[in-house]
Amino acid sequence: MATFKISAVHVEEPPGYSHPHISEVDIGNGTWIQRSTVIKDLGEANGDRYYTEAGGERADVIAVDCPHCGAGDYITTEPDSTTENNLLSLVV
Length: 92
What we know:
Layout: E1 3-5, E2 8-12, E3 21-26, E4 32-34, H1 35-43, E5 49-54, E6 57-64, E7 74-77
Parallel strand pairs: 1-5
Antiparallel strand pairs: 2-3, 3-4, 5-6, 6-7
């Protein structure tokens, strides 16, 4: 099991909707990982873990149902005290 810091994300809109879903994440050195791989890793007991950090606060990445369209392949950060480390703030 490894832990990766997400430094940037790409987004896409799900078919029929107009809100962003993260499509892939940058874990450093230009290494991009697909959302499906992140979700698979998070679901495995010994899988890799992901987080982001801003303003000195760490936020772990989780997979949930999208609050807008209900899609089950949505990644976000666990609620914390700042919105600075929200994954959508890392869009490039």
